Amino acid sequence: MEPAAFTEVLSESERRLVFESLLSPGAELTREQASACCRALKRGKLERERERLQGDIEAAERSQDSSRLVELQRAKLQLDKDLRDLLRV
What we know:
By secondary structure, this protein is mostly helical. It has helices spanning 12-23, 31-62, 66-88. α1 (12-23) packs antiparallel against α2 and α2 runs antiparallel to α3 (66-88).
């Protein structure tokens, strides 16, 4: 897995952490360790996004915005699938 592949998935601080860990002297990271680190960071990002979506879903329910609610629920279903897929790796 190339570190550059994570530019769209990780936040700036998460990318910096990955690159610093790969380049730090004396701390040799195996490919498996780097991959596990990136999966953990991606999992955290997906979980934060799920929490945000859940809050948006609750707000749409309160405002009785059914079209927005359907859109948010679809997004949450996709995010839940992405999270399950990530955990299977």
